[in-house]
Amino acid sequence: MSSKVLGILGTAKNTGKTTTTSALLEIANNKNLSVGITSIGYDGEDIDNITGLPKPRIFAKKGTLIATAKNCLKSGVSQIKTLKETEISTPLGKIIIGEVMEDGLVIIAGPNKGEEISIVIDKLKKLGNKLILVDGAINRIVPLMNTDALILTTGAARNINIDFLVKEIQCICNLFDLPKINKKNLMNLKNIEQKVVTLIQNDNLKRFLRINSLINLADLLELTSNLDDKTNSIFIPGILTEFALKELIKKNIKLSKSKNIIISNPSHLLVGSNPISLFDILFEMKKLEIKLKVIKTLPILAITINPFYPLYRYGNNKYESAWVDRDKLYNKIKSIVSIPVIDIVREGGNNLFDIIKKEFNLSQK
Amino acid sequence: MQLTKEKKKVLLVPLDPVHDVALKIINRRLKERGHKTILMPPDIPMEEVVSQALKVKPDMILISRTLGYGVAELLARFIDLVEAAGIREKVKIVIGGKAIKPELAAELGFDAGYGEGTDFEEVIAFVEGRKYIAKEENIIKKKKDITSGYSYKFNHPKIEKMLNEINEEILDWCKDKTSPGIKRAHLREKMISLKDEKSKMSPCDIGKKMNEYKKKYLENCDESIIKYYKEGILPKKVRILTAREQKSLEDYIQRTKRVSTVKRIQHTNDKPLVFFQYGTGCPIMDIAHIKIGEAWGVDGVLHFDPSWGARTEGFLEGYLSHEEDGSIITEQNLGKIKESLNSSTLWTVRAHRGLNTPETVVLAGKSGADLTKINIVYGSLNAGTDPARLTVDGVEAIKLSAKYNLPFDEPTNEELGGVPAYKAFAGMLILAKLGLKLGAKPILKPLFCYSPDVMITGRMDDNYIDYNAAKIYALRSIIDVPIWPGEPIGFMTHTEDRIQSSMTTALHATLATSLGVDAITIASSDEAYSRGSISVTSRIDTLRAVQEAFRFLGKAEIKPTHKAKEWSNELVSQIEKVLENVLRKGSFVASLYDGILGSKEDGAYPGRTGRDTIFSK
Questions:
Q1: C-beta atoms of B69 and A271 within 8 A
Q2: Last-in-domain residue among A294, A316, A351
Q3: Structural domain count, chain B
Q4: What is the separation of C-alpha A116 from the centre of its chain, rounded to a whole number of angstroms?
Q5: B86 to chain A: closest CA residue
Q6: How far is A214 from chain B (nearest CA, A)?
Q7: Would you say residue A253 has pLDDT above 50?
Q8: Cβ separation of B83 and A40 shorter than 8 Å?
Q9: CA-nearest residue of chain A to B95?
Q10: Domain holding A22: CATH number?
């Protein structure tokens, strides 16, 4: 059985990434599944770096493998034996792969760049981990695209308006549901060495532009001055912002109509956009028969929700713990998405683990 | 522009609309070092920053942003944008701003993060891929020898000649005399050395010898000291630290050593070194004061013992606490204080004024002190010790200071009693020359003070600069020797107002750095009114104030008026006259009794403690 990598993605800080990771780790540990864990952020600290409020801790059992920065070794409670030291540098020192020697709390700050995540995942795989958990950071998404599947966490810390959260989750799920380009087109793109915006013409000829992203009006001008009726698809290897997309369909309806827009993966659109406004833009595109496609996407296996949020008090310049209506949040999101929704604090991680087990076809040691 | 490998292209992004000063400073420094920089306008959308980065292909992006609600998400999204744009592997991204820590930088996905108070050099080092050596590490404080670089040569032959004659008379007068104080000093030396004889002698023999020495020692002590050794009765307000207190003293030393740091207080000048006096009575409290002082930049400390210590023949022993001002000198107390000191901290144990002067020098030397303090004239005229006794003891103390390689400073605090500076200086110079003759290293200690004499003569009616500067000019025109104004600077200009007090200390420190003196002793801001223990916060007040003063002046100078030179010349001729009077008198000791170096009219009173206690060898 090959190893599987699960990324835990959040819409903001304090949406429950570490709580979810911790719950999954506990169950995997209890089920004697060999687990490797890393984080693209800084996890397991007792106090939040920004709000000063308590944070969920990470409890690792003996034998768990972790990839973390050297300086974190002394901060945790658990004894960690360094198995390998990598050349990956972070603000907290080089990343090491270590084995937990006795049960205890750990602090995890792993690599935070996509390529480095891949290196670390590879090392953890080689050490025989069946399940590798990659805890996310804040609202970061791009590095997590190097995993096999995602858990999406959201909650009141992102926005206390539940309707907003519902709409945002719906949109993110839609984006991860974007169709993948077909194999023929994929082969075609794989041959592109230059990582620049590429126009694929009807006769399969390619035109390479001087830009790699569609961010602002200047990029748009570069694109539209090269776009013509014969253009079949536009491949954007870098970022596609909501602004550029909106301008393209607003000002160049004729030119953009019935074309394919291909992006690397949903994150390349999500990072430069507000998901709520994207919702309307995607609807507009549909009307114009513009097809947005991705080269790669990942399945979102479940959504975990968290009613907690840090409430800022101007009077004393401090944050306090606060909560939105837990049932309302759960029910509203559940009613709108087809993906399983889990209240991780209330339910624990068992149901979530079963979903992962099924998806990844995990078996115990 | 084609940059060499070492030169970097840096994009500087002030995401904050207002807090961009740090980034501009870094921009200037990077440019000065030949890096190519692009400083973006403030408050630009993230997407535009990435667009610019795609265009200019920087090696580094430095972002400044104050944290606030939602800012973490904003910054993390920026990192995602850079990564999605495909350039994350090619560019290092740094975040700087209030409340940024490395942990937060790691959480946000940055390569480095710097918070408030960061040394800009640390950021530059990161840009250049160098290892950063923290300023504190950079200037690993080293203990300085105040006396180094001085020739001790006289520039004034006439004065030198007179001093020689006076000193010959002193040494001749002392040569066949001794005192209980001298006897104890030599017994103390033997007792301490006995502990090192373990390899040569049996414990039993050592015990016997020790008892023999102690018996002789007690024969030369006052009743109050004998009572302690024989009956265990301690003087009033003195007690032995309990076993628990001794244990906690031990723990305290170890703990403070682990966490304590030192700091440099000087700005661009190396001089003066900054000292303060401690003597809370309790060795634990003393250590707290010293360690806090070190952390705030003090270069040296002076041990002050209780005033009754100068009037009592003999020393106590053990870990002793005193409920009033002044920390009791014992081998054990000094040993613990020494143990707590940072290796760079200079340590003076004062011995100058009483019946235990030679023995204090022995204890200071054996305890590892760096300096001591001896002045026969001040001790005789304003500290209550009999002039004849202190002359005999003082000469011996100076010989011991040479033996233990302890340079000694000579305070001229008799000025505070009303003795004019020139008389105090004449006395100080006699002792300085005597020290040189006996192979010791004297340090002159004129006061920077608003003394009764200058109040009466009006020399400080306009400013505190001219007369203090005149003192330094005068002494330098006579001899090339280290000068250390004290004790403390600005004496009698301080009031109960802590701000005024810190301010006047700082201004006198400014004058000291401008005059290039070697060291200063500073008061705490509550010293003028504490009438008891000095608070540690007040120590920090003046250390901070002095640091600001040094920062303010840098290598600039204070310009005294023409009066300073005039008064300097006047001081030199007045010193000459006093020395002539001493010579005319034919006896240094008689000069002390008869007011030549400070009279009753001036406010000097020859002391009576220890009278008739000198005898033939």
A1: no
A2: A294
A3: 2
A4: 15
A5: A238
A6: 9
A7: yes
A8: no
A9: A91
A10: 3.40.50.300
Cβ A215–B50 below 8 Å, yes or no?
yes
- 139-168 of A, contacting B, C-beta below 8 A: 139-143
Nearest CA in chain B to A319: B69
Q: Which residue of A has its CA nearest to B55?
A: A211
Which among B452, B458, B542 is positioned nearest to B500, based on CA atoms? B542
Mean pLDDT of chain B: 92
B296/chain A closest Cα distance in angstroms: 28
Predicted local distance difference test score (pLDDT) of residue B588: 97
- Within a domain: residue B574? yes
Q: What is the arithmetic mean of pLDDT over B250-275?
A: 89
Tens digit of each residue's pLDDT (9 = 90 or more) over B348-366: 999 878 999 999 999 999 9
Domain that holds residue A304: 4-175+298-360
Contact B369, B338 (CB under 8 A): yes
Number of domains in chain A: 2
Same-domain status, A87 and A61: yes
Please give the model's pTM, rounded to 2 decimal places.
Answer: 0.68
> CB distance B112–A238 less than 8 Å?
no
Residue B506, domain CATH: 3.20.20.440
Across the interface, whether the CB atoms of A91 and B48 are under 8 A apart is answered no
- What's the N-to-C CA distance of chain B in angstroms? 87
Shortest Cα distance from A176 to chain B (angstroms)? 16
Statement to judge: residues A64 and A47 lie in one domain: yes
Pair (A104, A203) in one structural domain: no
- Residue B143 φ/ψ region, left for φ over 0, alpha for ψ in the -120 to 50 degree band, beta for the rest: beta
Residue A364 has pLDDT above 60, yes or no: no
Subunit contact B103:A45, Cβ cutoff 8 A:
yes
Cα–Cα distances (Å) from B583 to B166, B444, B474, B586, B608, in that order, read: 6, 22, 21, 5, 24
Using CB atoms, pick whichever of B72, B84, B103 lies closest to residue A239: B84
Among B85, B102, B108, beta carbon nearest to A238: B85
Residues of B whose CB is below 8 A from A237: 86
Q: Identify the domain containing residue B95 by its residue range.
A: 9-132
pLDDT above 90 coverage of chain A, percent = 62
Give the closest-approach CA distance of B77 to chain A in angstroms.
6
CA A8 to chain centre: 7
Other beta carbons within 10 Å of A308? 19
Name A358's Cβ contacts closer than 8 Å, sequence gap at least 6.
none
Tokens of B259: 């966490």
Confidence class of residue A194 from pLDDT cuts 50, 70 and 90? low
Residues A18 and A140 in one domain: yes
- Residue B94 is part of a domain; what is its CATH number? 3.40.50.280
The verdict on A60 and A82 lying in the same domain is: yes
Q: What is the pLDDT of residues B163-187, one digit of tens each?
A: 999 999 999 999 999 999 999 999 9
